[in-house]
Specification:
Largest sheet: 6 strands, mixed
CATH topology: Nuclear Transport Factor 2, Chain: A
Number of strands: 6
Distance between the termini: 42 Å
Number of helices: 3
Order of helices and strands: HHEEHEEEE
Strand order of the largest sheet: 2-1-6-5-4-3
CATH architecture: Roll
Amino acid sequence: MLAKATRVTGDAIKRAIETRDGRALAELYAEHAVTRIIDHNNPPSKPREVKGRAAIARFWDDICGRAMTHRVDMSIADGDRLAFTQACLYPDGAKVFCIALLELKDGLIVEQTIVQAWDE
């Protein structure tokens, strides 16, 4: 069981994303969590689904391992829900923007939906 200090907050999300700490991000998810990604390659009718903390950890390791900067501009919490925006910048100037919606249970993420767009 995770310590209460690892419970999901806007500040915890911001800190982990902006420092590209995939391990810290993975610790914010319940074992059975599901992340859905909607973007140009994964439309709303067929979103990409990443299931379970281990798979989500690999997802964040990939994202955090890329040569790019990440900035969380805004987070809003309402009970067991949290939303945040994230802006990313690759060294070549290409940008990515995403908004994430989180459902929490017992202080951990159980469901997440990410909607993202990037420069092409």
